[in-house]
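Following up on my earlier thread - several people asked me to post the actual chain instead of describing it. Fair enough. Here it is, all 384 residues.
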Amino acid sequence: VHSADSTVVLAGHEMAFPGDINEYAYHHPSQTLLLSLQNGSKSRDKQLVLYDLSKKQTRWVAKSNAEIRSLQAKTAILKYGGRKIIDAETGALLRDGDGGYFLHLGNGETLIFSKEKYARVDLFSGEEMWQRPGQACTGYRWTKIAGDSVFVVANGLQALDMRTGDGWSYDASTSSKAVGKEVAKHFFSALLDVLAGTNSNPAWDPDASHNLSSFPLILHEKVYFAARKDVYCFDKNSGRVLWQVTLEKEPGSMRLYPAGDNIALIGEGWKYRDFDILKAQPPSIAFFDKETGGPQARFSAEEADVVLDYMWAADKMYLLTTNRLYCFDDNLATLAILENTPEWGQFIRLLPHTEKLAVRTNAGVATVRPASLETLSFHHLGGA
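Reply from S.P.:
Thanks for posting it. Predicted structure:
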């Protein structure tokens, strides 16, 4: 979307609109595009436009100062003094929306998570399939769906059966301080897509860091999770702790990945505090046995950096940071290190490749030998 000239290029279509584009939402299955346009200098000059890409026609236009939050096949969610649910077909207001975080299920239904309640709701009608009391959501970070279960990272880890609302929870701090009451009081009703970060008000503790946890990693009937200085393995169905390991140092923001017979815990080298990204410990990797949690190997970078990507291939592991690509064996012994160059710019991500290893950078794509990381070629792609 190019808002500077009010032109949109999307899904093979090119369209011009009578105003600058403030924001938009796109729903791929229904091929619809909801835009907020500014056709003048005043707030009353804003309007919403719902465009049907498949029919190449506008469905409706409405004058509105509302902010767009999401678009589904049947409904759209706006923010205007609170959350508003509208009919995507006509633009008519259906009802006021609930507070909390929405997780859309793709069939016109959504899961709602708030301190007051958890519920499965039909967005169009407002009918609830089930409801249960809400739980504290200190350090809310994200959700992950696996089969009929959804795992919520908030005040630890919570698991819910999406069909019934039944499940389990395990309390574990995902922030450096207990700021749950303040987060709930000031932010829960306002944040719609992501509840992460803290308030900069001087009355708050200045070291209330979030993102000190990982995504849950679900492998068969086990769930792996890391928060602060602890790594856990849970029984997927009951939530029973199968093993727990405490780290020597808190690595900041973390990721968990499968690594053969082990689980790889990656310290990303940063943490999020007061809406700023701060340096934490240097990037690190620790291997733990999947079944017992027994420590197997560990690596820590010597310099501060930020982890961007990871790949496990047979008996080798690759770790990509902004400045370096590391290659390890299955015991985390360093086999090779590739430094970026001014010509390449910063590393961005690892790319799938059958015989070589490909790395996307700011300026192009580098291909290297998988074991030695010897450069084979570099192709410029016209800049960032």
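Residues 180-187 form the longest helix (8 residues). That should answer part of your original question.
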